[in-house]
């Protein structure tokens, strides 16, 4: 295949070591094709069919509409057989069908399976020996912890390849739901790492119940469960630590280990605490005008009058002191 400034195929042009698009390089390998860049200022060595799509659109399909893709394919098959293949090529000055029959013995059959397109990206292997792809974890052994690997995501599966040699390391089916962990039990690591100790230290600062819950979850899932632990200790950024520790104590009692459920418990405790603040104080009574202990207004008026008369009969305070 002769290339002429194919930007989709070559990411970084270079005379000696061009950097190819990984998807395009995989297409070449799948069909057994070698990409040979065209020489500069040498039009006789360039491909003569680079405008095939543009030629088809401007002649066969221009101004036409079809009810279905099958109808369009039938029309193009008739157009190719009775017109395009019979015409004289403009630059070659030869019949297209005659040139194809000369090349036909040299063509190889296509692979039985078509090429599967993918999206490639780099990922870091975490200390649980997994890589994260779309919020799910996939086992990456024998890749080393901390190394960079290539991940190719296909329609129904993904491949993990070595970052240097691109050798295939692992193949996994795509996770059915977000947050899944595709890791065999025999590959789980249960020895605490530095990251594990940091998580448990932060859990201890929140409270004893939080530390106990995080330690239990780590003992059950190993390092791969540290994402959940980070979520639990990260609740301290939004909720009071006292409420988080109470929520973890409730989770221990009820056998709950889900981060979302613990977050919901902390949210409920916070709402209850705010409702208690807004509630009236216990013992606060509403003023009333009718009660067996309350006398009529005339009795209180007579009492005030009698008190005033007695006060007037008493000598002044200065005279009494002298």
Tell me what you see in this structure:
With 322 residues, the protein is of the alpha+beta class. It folds into 4 domains: 1-42, no CATH class; 52-108, no CATH class; 119-187, no CATH class; 194-278, no CATH class. Helices cover 41% and strands 13% of the residues. It has 11 helices and 11 strands. The protein has helices at 22-31, 52-59, 69-84, 96-103, 194-206, 208-221, 226-233, 241-254, 259-278, 297-313, 317-321; strands at 2-3, 10-12, 19-20, 36-37, 119-124, 130-133, 136-139, 148-153, 157-162, 168-173, 181-182. The strands form 4 sheets. A 4-stranded antiparallel β-sheet has the order 5-8-9-10, with no helix packed on it. Strands 6-7-11 form a 3-stranded mixed β-sheet, with no helix packed on it. A two-stranded parallel ribbon has the order 1-4. A hairpin with a 2-residue loop joins strand 6 (130-133) and strand 7. Helix 6 (208-221) crosses helix 8 (241-254). The mean pLDDT is 87.
Task: Label this structure with key terms.
322 residues, alpha+beta, single chain
Along the chain, the helix and strand elements come as: EEEHEHHHEEEEEEEHHHHHHH
Number of strands: 11
Structural Rg: 41 Å
Helix vs. strand class: alpha+beta
N- and C-termini, Cα separation: 129 Å
Count of helices?
11
| Quaternary structure of the protein | single chain
Which segments are poorly predicted (pLDDT under 50) over 5 or more consecutive residues? none
Shape call: elongated
How much of the sequence is in beta strands? 5-15%
How many separate structural domains? 4
């Amino acid at each position: 295949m002769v290339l002429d400034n194919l930007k989709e195929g070559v990411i970084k042009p270079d005379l000696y070591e061009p950097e190819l698009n990984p998807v395009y390089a995989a297409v070449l390998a799948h069909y057994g094709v070698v990409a040979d860049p065209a020489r500069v200022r040498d039009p006789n060595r360039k491909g003569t069919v680079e405008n095939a799509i543009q030629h088809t659109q401007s002649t066969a399909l221009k101004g036409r509409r079809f009810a279905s893709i099958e109808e369009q394919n039938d029309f193009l098959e008739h157009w190719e057989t009775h017109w395009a293949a019979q015409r004289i090529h403009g630059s070659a000055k030869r019949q297209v069908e005659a040139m194809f029959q000369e090349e036909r013995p040299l063509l190889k059959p296509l692979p039985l399976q078509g090429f599967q397109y993918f999206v490639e990206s780099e990922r870091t292997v975490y200390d649980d020996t997994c890589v994260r792809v779309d919020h799910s974890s996939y086992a990456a052994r024998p890749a080393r912890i901390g190394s960079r690997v290539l991940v190719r995501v296909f329609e129904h599966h993904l491949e993990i390849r070595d970052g240097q040699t691109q050798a295939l390391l692992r193949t996994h089916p795509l996770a059915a739901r977000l947050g899944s962990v595709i890791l065999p039990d025999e590959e789980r690591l249960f020895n605490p790492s530095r990251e594990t100790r940091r998580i448990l230290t932060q859990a201890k600062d929140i409270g004893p119940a939080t530390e106990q819950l995080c330690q239990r979850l780590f003992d059950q899932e190993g390092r791969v469960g540290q994402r959940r632990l980070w979520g639990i200790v990260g609740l301290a950024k939004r909720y009071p630590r006292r409420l988080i520790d109470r929520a973890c104590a409730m989770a221990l009692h009820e056998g709950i280990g889900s981060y979302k459920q613990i977050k919901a418990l902390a949210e409920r405790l916070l709402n209850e605490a705010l409702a208690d603040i807004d509630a009236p104080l216990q013992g606060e009574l509403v003023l009333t005008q009718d009660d067996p202990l309350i006398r009529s207004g005339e009795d209180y008026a007579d009492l005030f009058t009698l008190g005033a008369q007695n006060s007037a009969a008493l000598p002044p305070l200065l005279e009494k002191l002298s």
